Amino acid sequence: MIFSPFVFLALLSLTSAHFSIEYPYWRGSSFAEGTSQWIFPCANVTETADPTNRTAWSPTSGSLRLHVGHHWALTYVNIGLGPNATNFNISLVDHFNQTGNGTFCLKETGKSKLVAGLKAAGLEGEAVEGVQATLQVVQISTTGGALYNCADITFNSTAALLADSECANSTDVGGITVVNANEAANTTGTPPSSSTASSTAATSSGAAVGIGVAGGGIGGILVAVLGAGMAVL
Ligand SMILES: *[C@@H]1O[C@H](CO)[C@@H](O)[C@H](O)[C@H]1NC(C)=O
Ligand SMILES: *[C@@H]1O[C@H](CO)[C@@H](O)[C@H](O)[C@H]1NC(C)=O
Ligand SMILES: *[C@@H]1O[C@H](CO)[C@@H](O)[C@H](O)[C@H]1NC(C)=O
Ligand SMILES: *[C@@H]1O[C@H](CO)[C@@H](O)[C@H](O)[C@H]1NC(C)=O
Ligand SMILES: *[C@@H]1O[C@H](CO)[C@@H](O)[C@H](O)[C@H]1NC(C)=O
Ligand SMILES: *[C@@H]1O[C@H](CO)[C@@H](O)[C@H](O)[C@H]1NC(C)=O
Ligand SMILES: *[C@@H]1O[C@H](CO)[C@@H](O)[C@H](O)[C@H]1NC(C)=O
Ligand SMILES: *[C@@H]1O[C@H](CO)[C@@H](O)[C@H](O)[C@H]1NC(C)=O
Ligand SMILES: *[C@@H]1O[C@H](CO)[C@@H](O)[C@H](O)[C@H]1NC(C)=O
């Protein structure tokens, strides 16, 4: 098939705006034929069939490294329990504004929320060992459309976090609190207070959000930007 230069450029910009999960190893490439990041819940990528081929992730939380292509995107990280999860009802990271392109890494993703979510599902202590689950990452950008990617994991308390050398945000990559539309005008010059844990990751556009820390002080949603993308969540 021969693409005109125009179509090629359009595809190029579409692709660069997508994202990938680098760790834990994703289900499979969502850039491959027959897949699409626009498809809920996991980009039409089939779940990992071989149980030994899932990344071991600690039930007290693990690392998540993304390669992101947007200038910014509202980002969510959820977990669904089971070998072929369809119900991503544990929210590790509520919407935050992931800014910048390149590598984005959370060392210990939504720690307290994971522990609480597992507990709610009756999974504590030994019971959680070996339980299969799927991490779902959702990014919603300027157009309001949602992009999905998933990574299949097995809970294992011996699983280690990524080392600092493997888990660092690119320069100018970080996250900021989502602001309410009616407060936006007031936030200029008074960035939201940053958590001590992530203050070094503050971007030039504002203070860092304490993602992965309980609460996080994340504000409201800029409804106008979200559009139809929210409906599927
Ligand atoms: C494990 O997963 C990777 C990535 O999806 C794949 O390339 C590989 O073939 C799988 N290995 C097995 C044994 O299923
Ligand atoms: C999604 O996957 C199914 C099963 O592999 C396939 O039939 C379908 O065409 C895929 N959808 C898209 C939009 O690629
Ligand atoms: C996994 O879930 C998907 C979506 O619900 C379904 O199409 C598929 O058949 C399931 N696979 C298995 C092995 O159950
Ligand atoms: C980020 O975006 C800029 C401008 O679009 C581009 O020049 C740069 O290569 C991108 N960086 C990465 C790591 O994708
Ligand atoms: C989430 O779904 C799992 C089953 O997939 C269920 O066991 C658990 O109770 C649910 N948790 C909440 C908080 O609804
Ligand atoms: C957890 O990981 C260790 C080290 O890879 C392995 O020996 C053990 O069997 C795993 N436990 C479960 C329940 O999968
Ligand atoms: C990356 O940025 C986010 C948002 O500011 C922050 O929570 C996280 O801790 C940073 N990652 C690392 C490895 O510092
Ligand atoms: C996210 O941050 C970028 C860069 O600061 C900003 O342009 C964008 O409006 C923010 N989006 C939301 C929904 O807060
Ligand atoms: C914006 O700031 C002004 C002055 O501090 C204050 O009076 C006003 O209530 C603020 N508006 C909003 C929506 O927070």
Automatic annotation (TrEMBL):
Keywords, alphabetical: Cell membrane, Glycoprotein, GPI-anchor, Lipoprotein, Membrane, Signal, Transmembrane, Transmembrane helix
Classification via InterPro entries: BIM1-like, BIM1-like_dom
GO cellular component entries: plasma membrane; side of membrane
Location relative to the cell: Cell membrane
Keyword Transmembrane helix: yes
Topology class, membrane: Lipid-anchor; GPI-anchor
Signal peptide segment: 1-17
Membrane-crossing segments per the record: 207-232
Domain Copper acquisition factor BIM1-like: 16-172
Pfam families hit by this protein: BIM1-like_dom
Keyword Transmembrane helix attributed: yes
UniProt name for this protein: Copper acquisition factor BIM1-like domain-containing protein
